[in-house]
Design brief:
Length: about 210
């Protein structure tokens, strides 16, 4: 029970334990960030409330494929849930458990903000499916035609995390990585060219021709 990544879909059973653990961590950290980004936005931005000051994302749980019969996750209103989200009120410390459909009902977070969160979380789940499929297909950088890249510590944190854990990159990360590689190769070429020019100038100067 409550092991989110072993139950999402059958393909997941084909993954090794390390990959399942990565996906679990991936979902949890990205969900927390999604909540904080969207709620945080509201604090400083275009909405009236101070939601981020009021609510903190605690966790997300998945009751598994047999949630209808064996599940023990519930919404505040008593509805049985497969996917349960928990937020805590920062002032009272009170935690609220809910399914995404009842986010507004049980927290008072405005519907437009709730919609943004739902959209973001759906996107996350589709990214998770993308990673699972790529794991099954034995994805590698080479299969993407990438033979060289800057050192991991020079890459964005999320990309270097995936690669350090030997996990596939998402299409959007690949796009970013390709841009970084292109910029870096341009920079290196430029540098090499400048070196050649400087050496040539030095030679000419030595011959008294410059
Ligand atoms: Zn409810």
């Amino acid at each position: 029970m409550n092991v989110p990544c072993q139950t999402e879909d059958n393909n997941e059973q084909l993954l090794c334990e390390k990959q399942v653990m990565f996906l679990d961590e991936f979902l949890k950290t990205r969900m927390k960030k999604a909540f904080e980004d969207i709620l945080g936005n509201k604090k400083t931005g275009f909405n009236s409330g101070h939601i981020a000051e009021e609510w903190e994302f605690i966790h997300y749980e998945d009751a598994g494929n047999n949630w209808r019969t064996d599940g023990d996750l519930f919404c505040e209103c008593g509805r049985k849930l497969r996917y349960q989200y928990t937020l805590a009120n920062k002032t009272t410390g009170l935690q609220k458990h809910f399914g995404l459909n009842h986010l507004t009902e049980h927290t008072g977070i405005q519907p437009d903000v709730a919609r943004q969160i739902v959209k973001e979380l759906k996107q996350l789940k589709s990214e998770k499916r993308e990673i699972i499929q790529k794991c099954i297909d034995d994805w590698t950088l080479t299969s993407e035609g990438i033979k060289w890249m800057p050192p991991l510590d020079q890459l964005p944190e999320d990309i270097s995390w995936h690669l350090t854990e030997q996990m596939p990159l998402l299409e959007r990360q690949l796009k970013r990585l390709r841009q970084i590689i292109q910029e870096e190769s341009r920079r290196l070429n430029e540098k090499a060219l400048q070196k050649i020019v400087a050496e040539e100038k030095k030679k000419l100067a030595e011959k008294g021709l410059l």
